[in-house]
Amino acid sequence: MRILHVTTGLTTGGAEIMLLKLLSANNGVWESAVVSLMDEGTIGSKIAALGIPVHSLGLRRGRPNPVSVLSLKSIARQFQPQLIQGWMYHGNLGASLASVSMQGRVPVLWSIRQSLYDITRERRLTRAMIRLGAFFSWHPANIIYNSQISARQHELFGFRTSKSVVIPNGFDSQLFRPDSQARHQIRRELGVGMDAILVGLIARLHSVKDHSGFLRSAAFVTRVHPSVYFVLAGSGVNKEESALRSLIAEHRLEGRTFLLGERSDIPKLTAALDIACSTSLGEGFSNAIGEAMACGVPCVVTDVGDSAYVVADAGLLVPPRDPEALAQAIDHLVDAGPEQRRQLGVAARRRIQTEFSLPTIAHRYEDLYREHVGTALYTKC
Fold first, then answer.
1. How far apart are CA 300 and CA 348, in angstroms?
2. Domain limits at 372?
3. Contact residues for 269 (Cβ-Cβ < 8 A; gap 6+)
4. In this predicted model, what pLDDT tens digit does every residue of 326-358 receive, in sequence order?
5. Based on C-alpha coordinates, what's the Rg of the chain?
6. Which of 126, 135, 169, 308 is geometrically suited to a Cys-Cys bond with 122, CB 3.0 to 4.6 A?
C-alpha cells in the first residue's frame, strides 16, 4: 500500500509531529512519501531518517506559485499512490489537487488538527483556505479530526458532516516516560536546586496559547511559593522576544522564569517538570498535555477543546482567561506534596497508555487506509 502525504509545511507543530509519529509507527506496513508545500522545516530530516522520501516545493507564505502545483502533480504521478492524505488546510487542498493528476480513482483523506473558535485569529490566506476547504469538503473520502470539538466546529462552518472521522493524537510512552535523571539534568542546566518545583508551559508563541495569562498566574503563585520556578519552551518563546521580557519584568518574575525557545529534547524537558500547564484559549487536542501525562507529570489545563476528556480525573481543569483560577490550581498541586503529585502522575500515564497509545492510534489509521484502498481497488475491478 503506497500512501502520499501532502502537508502545508514541516516546522515543529502538532500536525507535523503527529505525521512523524504515524510514519515512525508504520513498521513497514505501507510505503510512504511526503510532500511539503513549503520547506523541510525541523521535521523533514527526521522523516527522511526513517527512509521516507521528502519532497519540498518551496512555497512561501502569501505567495502562490502555479509551478509548484505542476511539481506536486508530477511527484504524485511518479509515486503512483493508492491513497493520498492531506495535512492541514493548505495540504488538504494540495492532496485533492494531486489526486486530479492520477489515472483512475485515488481516495483522498484530509486531516484537520486544530479548533476553529474564531476564524479571525487566522492569517488572511489561511482564512481563505478554510473557506475553500468547506466548499470542497465533498471531495475527500473522509476528513480526519483529532478532537470532537474540532469536528463540531468545522461542521458548523460548512465542512461535510458525513465525512467526519475522529482519531485522537497518539503518544509513544517509551519516548515520553518518567525520568529521574532528566529531572536532575534540567535543574543543573537551569541552575536551580534539586528541591525546586518546576511548572512548565510548552507551547509555540501565539496569542491563542495565552502566555501572558500563564505569566500573570506565575506572579500569583510566587507570592505564596518562593520555591516555584516557571519554564516556557516552544517556537518563538525565547529571550529575544521583547513582549515576553516585558511581561516577566512587569510581574517581577526575573530569575524565576526561563525562556528556552524551541528544544530538541522535549521528552527530557517534560519529564523534568513537577506540573505541566496548558493555558490555551482554544484547543483541539493538546500534544504537550498528552506528552506530559505520558511522562507522569500532573497537569493543569484550561477547559477548551477536548482537554477535559483527555485529562479526565488525572489532572485539574480551570476556565480559560482566568489566571487566578490557574494559580489556585497550581498552588493546590504544590501544597499537595511530591507523593500526591506522583500518584496523580501515575494515573495520568496510565490513561495515556490505555486510551491514547501510539500503536492503538496507528492501527486506527491503518484500518481507515485499508477501508478506502480496498474500496478503490474494488471499484477499478
1. 12
2. 2-170+358-380
3. 182, 186, 200, 202, 231, 233, 260, 263
4. 999 999 999 999 999 999 999 999 999 999 999
5. 21
6. 126
